[in-house]
Structures are given as structure tokens and as C-alpha cells.
């Protein structure tokens, strides 16, 4: 098989588009897809300060690399979750990437900031690990972006992620989530703009980019991901994609273009009114936001069980470590 752009042997096939590329032209195609997504939804401007949420995995590292090469002003944000050796290796990959390229990196260590790790938080609140992890990461990303003056938060969500979430929300008719799902969430009062520049690219395509660019990344999957419903939805979609390449992209883009506008129009005026959390001042629909409730409850139980010495007064503001600077 030959490259679509030249006569050299193809190294990467993009079956859903009937394309194949040599390494050089694949990298060019990949970064063009990122640019296309950014321009289509007006995600970023070159004068913006972009906070890139970097877990250390292939998606977030590839996103940071692509944005760097496209000339955006980026700073990485890594959240240390405290998941045994997995989190340590994720930080090592992130720090190595940032250091080798001279990029600024901010680290928030949850154990240092809030005295508990994600596994401890889940155990004390009796909630699923993925649930409290997602809640915490969203809050910390937003708060760091707002208080450090960033214009937008960029995350590494890919086509597989977005299609599986859409499938799950559709199967359960989560209309509130369906209305909000998309590659861009606009800014609001104490809410940073959030963008997903990789939403047009699959996990396989991102992996190929990461390998061709020889980027350091965390190879392991999170040990708590096993059994997650999102993986079931991804597997189902992958089977359909194998039989009919392009299904995932058609499913997602068809929804965004045809169905979401109808939902937004039909549910206009039904969105809950946001107010300032009584504890931290950040947006919520009730008196106290879910983040403050969850962490306050966990610290209360930790104190009762004598797991934490000293005072356990909850402070929502995270402590930042500027791991690398430029």
C-alpha cells in the first residue's frame, strides 16, 4: 500500500477515510485534523493561554505535542491521583515530556492538597473510583485555569471517548448530558472554556502519532478502569466500526449537527440556574457544590476513623507545584 501523498510505502492506514500515509505525511495529516477541529469550533486562538490537562497517557501527551507544534502557548497541568505506582509513572512520563521540551508544568498532588488520595476518597465516600476521580479532576482543572488566568482548558478526549459517551447517554436518555456534550464548552462565571481538539481522531490514530513522534507516555491503563461501562460501549462500537469503517465519526458528527440543536431548542429554559457554592464560591446548582460535599464528607469520616491526625478543616483551593518553568 502506498502513501496517499507520495509513492513511498504507507506506514499508517486510516480505514474510516480510506487513506494510508507514510510517516511524514501521516504526522502532517494528524496535525491538520487537530487544526481542522480547532477552527471548526473556534476552540483556541494563538494569543490564548492554554492549560493542557495532561494525565501522562498517550492522548494528553499527543495533544500537548500537537498544540506545541502548531504554535499555541501551552502549560501542562498534571493531577497526582495517588494510585500506587501507576500515578508515579504517569507523573514521570509527564515531567519527562515537559522537561525535554522546556514546557511549563503545574502539578497538583491530591494527597498534599486535600490529605487523601483518589482510592481513599472513593472508599470513605463509598462511591465508585471513576466517579470521584472525574469529579475531582474537573473541579481542579477548572479552578486552576480560572485562578491562574488561563483562557481555555484543553483535554485529550478522542473520537472513541466521545462516541462511547454519546452511546451511553443515548441508551439511558440522559438529556441533560446530551445537551452539553460536544467538543467545546463555553466559558462562564468562574467556568473556564473547555476544548477537545482530538475529538476527530481515534485512539489508534493517536497511538500512531505518539509512536512516530517518539513521545514518552504512560503505557498502563488505570487499574480502576476495568469493568467501566464506557469500555463496554467502546467495545460495541469497535465491532461495528470493524464491519463499517467510519461509523463512530458519522454517529458523533451526525448527533452534533442534527440532533443536539433540536434538543437544545426543545430544552431551552430548562437548564438549572447556577449559583456560587457557599463553601468555595464556584458554580453549582445547589447551596454546596458536589466537590466540596464529597471531600468534606470524606475528611469527616477519616477523622472519625482516626485516619488523619490533627485538624480536618476542608479547604477547596488546591496547592500548586510549578514542576517546570520556562
Give a written overview of the molecule.
This protein has 326 residues and is an alpha/beta fold. It has one domain: 3-Layer(aba) Sandwich (Rossmann fold), CATH 3.40.50.620. Helices cover 49% and strands 12% of the residues. It contains twelve helices and eleven strands. It has helices at 23-41, 58-69, 84-101, 110-114, 118-125, 129-147, 159-171, 175-180, 203-212, 229-243, 247-266, 290-304, and strands at residues 12-14, 19-21, 49-53, 73-80, 105-109, 152-154, 184-185, 193-195, 275-276, 283-284, 321-324. The strands form three sheets. It has a seven-stranded mixed β-sheet with strand order 7-8-6-3-4-5-11, with helices on both faces. A two-stranded antiparallel sheet has the order 1-2. β3 (49-53), α2 and β4 (73-80) form a beta-alpha-beta unit. The longest helix has 20 residues, at 247-266. The N and C termini lie far apart (43 Å). The mean pLDDT is 94.
